[in-house]
Amino acid sequence: KQENAGKEGEGICESAKPLHRSADMSRSQSFMLLFLVVALQSCDAQVSVVVSSFKQKRCLEWQIDIFSSCPIVSHIHVNWFEPNGPAPNNTNKITYDVLPDLISHRFFPRKFRTQALFTTDVDVFTSCSALKIAYETWLRDKRAVVAFHPRNLRTNGTETWDEGYYYPYRHNTAYVTKGAVMHRKLFKIFFSKEYEEARRLVDRHVTGEDMLFSFMMELDHRIRGVKVICLEWKHACHVDCIQNSVLPLGLRTHSFRVPVLRQLFQMFGNPFIEYSGKEQYVWASDRDAEAPDPVCRSINKVYGPNTPPCKEFCSTSPACPHHST
Fold first, then answer.
1. How far is 257 from 77, CA to CA, in rounded Å?
2. Most buried among 110, 209, 305, 317, by the most CB within 10 A?
């Protein structure tokens, strides 16, 4: 009943107002009150995962294996950008959303069963335990975004991709494409008219949707910034998903990122504030939280499931060895 309430109650999470039972409340009104309570509880108890796929079947299978067995995951949405062949059939747990082959559409708004969404690239893996930590952090402030990978975007278009992971932890945003929990409303904001020109820019260059999302998080008053959680290696793995001679998107479009970032700064100005200091992060490990200058180990500098840090991740993930690349 609780599961069905969550499906039938789409939108209830957004609009329901507190109800108070009066002495003359009818049986039907009592039933409706109970339905609303169950629906609201269902909305708050689960996460929908959104993962994008493009010619990386083995990594997609691994993602599905991990999140299908994760208790807090209500549903998995696959952004199906594959050019060849039809999408697989939907199941009770997985929906293959066939979308236009435009990179901005990884954030295309649609009907989700839950308020909370977890977005991720197909080649960036996060444990169920880490997702639970992020979700519980998000529940304390649903207007914020909770992510794992800090970044520092500069007006000249440059970024030192790993500086946020090491002391003094300089950063001014985090990339939601590498794993982030957020409210589903943010997909609608991203597709508002205000960002239409910028969406065309990133679609034209097939890169920069992560940077545009970072601008949106700072510019929109409905979003209360981004919180960074630093994981341990056992919770994170970045796999080199090269398959069928198709390089990862980041390698294919890297040369466009500097000009795209510069144009985004020209469009929106500089809304970012640079932060530093370990107190800006949530540390998943007590050991890291107590250390003076720990490494934010969401970072993965060595790719491949048979080498650290993925070896540590795979030791706790039964699906890992079967889909190694």
1. 27
2. 209
47 pLDDT above the threshold of 50: yes
Distance CA 303, CA 125 (A): 12
Instruction: Tell me how far apart the alpha carbons of residues 144 and 89 are, in angstroms, rounded to a whole number.
Output: 34
With b for 16 or more beta-carbon neighbours within 10 A and e for fewer, the 294-308 pattern comes to: bebbbbbeebbbeee
Q: Is residue 322 very low, low, confident or very high in pLDDT (cuts 50, 70, 90)?
A: low
DSSP code of 101? S
Look at residue 33 in the predicted model and tell me its pLDDT: 59
Supply 278's token pair.
Answer: 């370990």
Residues in the chain: 325
Question: Which whole number is the average pLDDT over 71-99?
Answer: 92
The span from the first CA to the last CA of the chain, in angstroms, equals 41
SS3 state of residue 289 = helix
Q: Compute the C-alpha angle 229/255/324, nearest 5°.
A: 55
Exposed e or buried b per residue across 82-98, where buried means at least 16 C-beta atoms within 10 angstroms of its C-beta: beeeeeeeeeeebbbbe
Residues 109-129, mean pLDDT to the nearest whole number: 95
Q: Between 85 and 285, where is the model more confident?
A: 285
What pLDDT, on a 0 to 100 scale, did the predictor assign at position 321?
A: 52
Closest to 138 in 3D by CA, of 205, 225, 207: 225
Cis peptide leading into residue 309 (ω within 30°): yes
**Inter-CA distances, 44 with 15, 189, 323, Å:** 14, 21, 32
Chain-centre distance of CA 268, in angstroms? 23
